[in-house]
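Exercise: predict the fold of this chain.
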Amino acid sequence: MEHLSLIKLFSSFAMLGAEWVMWLLVALSALSIAVLVDRVLYFRGLRDDLGALGDAVNARLRVGDLHGARKRLAESPSPAGLVALAGLEEDRGAQAVERTMASTLARVKPMLERNINILGTIGSTSPFIGLFGTVIGIIQAFDALKTPDGVSGAAAAAASAAATGKVMGTIAEALVATAIGLAVAIPAVIAYNFLTKRIKLILGSTEVIAQLVMAHALSDRAPELARRDRHSQHERDESLAAQEVGQPAGVVG
């Protein structure tokens, strides 16, 4: 009895139609487009010539120009610049440099991957949602084939002929749900793969520049260059403070 009641309950639900499934797919399509536009604009803001950035930073580090390397990295909007800059600003040894860059990268990565899982979810579930709408439509079609109670003979034959045309229309509408599901899923999967590849390229370039910073941190000259850079920074701060009070740097009183 409970089993029959459950079947009747689902049949009653199916009689509501599959149009709401199609509207749900339209909403998911709009959501996937919004996520794609947001991510494309975000990645466009991070664009930089990472090859030129790596060459410039490497050249400055080779001659001991830490200030110039930091300045070049600070000018870059890319995650690679942010991670490498965090490493260059760390002066507690090579291990601290490595941990600092790893921590910065861990903070940057979720920003790159933000909402990407939405595209993957829409791409993987939309065909099944469309198929669900098709199943509902087919249930409606078969329900329309039932002969009305209390009708027999010629009247039953006429009712059956009329129902056949209605069934064909219902099945055609049901198949539209599957088509819409596929139309929503395919662009979402393409966008997901495109953005995922883009993220991998950004992370790979970030790793390359981070390794340049690690090579500097592991070099024998790193402590000396760090001390020299701190001294230069101190002199720049003194010069700036002197200019603010209107007297030459190094003059007191």
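Check your answer against the key: The chain has a mean pLDDT of 77.
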